[in-house]
Write a structure and sequence with these properties.
Length: about 600
């Protein structure tokens, strides 16, 4: 059938079947059967990669404390801060925030590597811009500005008075006798809370590659989220002059490496970048904020902008693309072929075909960008990504590719061996060659979609002594991704079975508002305990499973990574897209708004 879209694509200039085949072959080359087990957890012998804080100025000297509060919030990143802010707005003041870093910021406290920057437009990404009357300097803010914004939020909402920094929670245990959560910390604090909001973030637990010999290495090493400026010299903006006489290895080429490598390449004597899968590196094109435009925005603009962005990136029709960047590009192209109504009501197969073709075009452009920038033909080929744009988190950077034109920068393609072979006392072995280096920088990411036992750093022991890990062992079980049966007065903000957004901060804020509403309601009704019923939980899990596999074919076609659970799509205890509420964050928020509107806390038993 020659439908309007198919007609549009009658003369593509490339062969979609050949591209599909190439993508499949590149995926197959990288598939491993050990999933998350290929990674080393940052614990035991490797705990220092996560536990040591290179940024703390004054280590906390404080006796263990003994305290009872209404709410404990775990995590001082955006999700925890938003939870606290939304609770305070509702007048819930007896709150304690526990944070492992020495300040607010979470991801932005820890990730100070050179060049770190938000990849979502800052007008959408930075929360509370209207409330705090703050104008981001650029369309994509750099880490220091974001970290400063976290402190601004902390000051504005008085969060510093409520925070216990440099403290790691080691266990949560429900006490049936007095309906309190007993919160233990590594400092031996004895805390009791009526409610707990677990908001420890999604990128809080770094992981290392499980490479043979990693323990034998005698040189210096660190993970990107604990950047060692004492060793490299310089700061976030560069000037890593202490690397001038150093041979450095960077393992990993995801979002973090793309931002950091240009700075290391500029200063290191020799830099070896070990690449298993190339990232899609599109243009960044950062711009200064136009002050006049910013002042002209109408109240409510930030929510409207976030919703517009969220609708577009889940393929909903839109009248205007407010953000108009590399995240929305493909969707804009598809929609421009058809009026908005038809883009939704048109033949789904035809629309999927159009989306795939526009994706091919987009990725052809990304590959052409490599051709235009990188001089060496072999390196050029190795840097080309062969998968659809959203198989992995796409990256945007204007310096990364050109870094490989430097004579001191070497790309080591380890795709054939599915990773680096081995680490020795002296360096890294790949493709049978030993690269002796003075320092290894692990840009190998975080436990984002791994199993709960890997990504949650402490046990949560609920009613009847049941562990959360046990409850979630056969699959995540929640109502709205936020609470679980058997875990009264306990809420989890993050990426579970809720409306997912690539703009994480918007998602966290919406969840925070909802949780604050529930806690306020329970307190206001003079009740002690709110617990999700087994029935409500089962219904929600069924709904998630019913909807979630709409995108299974897509995820299956992708090269492995944390977006597709390293290829393990059938394990219901982990996942991002496979566990999310598929219609997206705006639909999820509408569903929660209806739920609140009903006013009966449906699905919760109050005692
Ligand atoms: P990722 O998980 O995206 O990347 C890890 C990298 O390590 C991949 O390139 C992976 O290769 C590689 N790797 C893993 N094991 C091996 C091995 N054995 N040998 C060689 N290479 C290996 O981590 P990032 O820290 O880059 O990013 C994580 C997330 O953090 C991002 O997706 C994003 O959500 C967030 N982030 C956000 C930023 C922002 O701008 N807001 C900036 C930075 C990070 P392979 O792909 O083959 O698995």
């Amino acid at each position: 059938m020659n439908t309007p879209l198919k007609k549009e694509y009658s003369n593509l200039g490339f062969d979609p079947d050949a591209l599909r085949e190439k993508y499949r072959a590149e995926r197959d080359k990288r598939m491993r059967d050990d999933g998350d087990d290929q990674f080393l957890r940052t614990m035991d012998d490797y705990a220092h990669y996560a536990d040591e804080d290179p940024f703390v100025e004054e280590p906390l000297e404080q006796d263990a404390i003994d305290r009872e509060v209404d709410v404990v919030v775990i995590g001082g990143g955006f999700s925890g801060m938003m939870a606290l802010a939304r609770l305070k707005e509702r007048g819930v003041e007896d709150v304690l925030l526990i944070e492992s870093g020495a300040d607010l910021g979470g991801t932005w406290y820890w990730n100070r590597y050179p060049g770190s920057q938000c990849d979502i437009e800052s007008y959408c990404y930075l929360p509370l811009l209207e409330e705090l009357d703050y104008m981001p300097k650029e369309k994509y803010s750099y880490a220091p500005e974001i970290y400063e914004h976290c402190q601004r939020i902390g000051e504005y909402y008085g969060l510093y008075d409520l925070a216990l920094f440099q403290t790691r929670v080691t266990e949560l245990r429900w006490s049936e006798d007095d309906s309190r959560w007993l919160v233990s910390t590594h400092r031996g604090d004895d805390l009791r809370a009526r409610f707990v909001i677990q908001a420890a973030g999604t990128a809080n637990t770094p992981k290392l590659p499980g490479i043979e010999g990693i323990h034998d290495y005698r040189g210096h090493s660190f993970h990107t989220c604990r950047w060692d400026y004492d060793y490299t010299g310089g700061d976030h903006s560069g000037g890593l002059t202490k690397l001038a006489d150093k041979r450095v290895a960077v393992i990993g080429t995801g979002c973090t490496a793309i931002q950091a490598v240009p700075y290391v390449g500029e200063h290191a004597k020799e830099l070896y970048v070990f690449q298993r899968t190339p990232s899609s590196v599109d243009a960044r094109g950062n711009t200064l904020t136009d002050e006049e435009w910013y002042k002209s925005l109408e109240p409510g603009w930030q929510r409207a902008r976030r919703e517009n962005f969220a609708d577009i990136v889940v393929g909903r029709p839109f009248e205007e693309d407010l953000v108009a960047d590399g995240w929305t590009d493909i969707f804009r192209r598809v929609q421009s072929l058809l009026p908005p109504e038809e883009a939704v009501e048109g033949d789904p197969e035809e629309l999927a075909f159009a989306a795939e073709v526009e994706d091919f075009r987009k990725m052809n452009e990304v590959r052409e960008r490599v051709d235009k920038t990188v001089k060496d033909p072999a390196i050029r080929e190795a840097l080309k990504p062969w998968y659809r744009q959203f198989c992995k988190r796409p990256t945007f950077n204007d310096e990364y590719l050109a870094t490989f034109n430097r004579p001191n920068v070497h790309l080591v393609d380890v795709s054939e061996s599915r990773g680096v072979d081995r680490i020795t006392e002296k360096g890294v072995v790949a493709n049978g060659v030993e690269y002796e280096v003075d320092c290894i920088i692990y840009a190998t990411g975080f436990e984002i979609t791994s199993s709960p036992r890997r990504r949650i750093n402490f046990d949560v022991v609920g009613r009847g002594g049941k562990s959360l890990f046990e409850h979630w062992d056969q699959g995540l079980q929640t109502l709205h991704g936020l609470s679980s049966h058997g875990f009264p007065n306990w809420f989890f903000i993050g990426v579970n079975q809720n409306g997912l957004s690539v703009n994480m901060t918007a998602m966290f804020d919406d969840q925070a508002r909802h949780v604050a509403y529930i806690i306020d309601e329970v307190l206001g009704r003079g009740r002690t305990v709110a617990e999700v019923t087994a029935e409500a939980e089962a219904e929600w899990v069924a709904e998630i499973r019913r909807l979630a596999f709409a995108n299974r074919d897509f995820l299956e076609s992708c090269t492995p990574g944390y977006y597709n659970n390293e290829g393990e799509l059938d394990d219901p205890s982990k996942g991002l897209a496979t566990q999310a509420y598929a219609p997206g964050i705006n639909a999820f928020n509408a569903l929660l708004a209806d739920w609140r509107e009903q006013g009966d806390l449906q699905g919760f038993e109050l005692r």
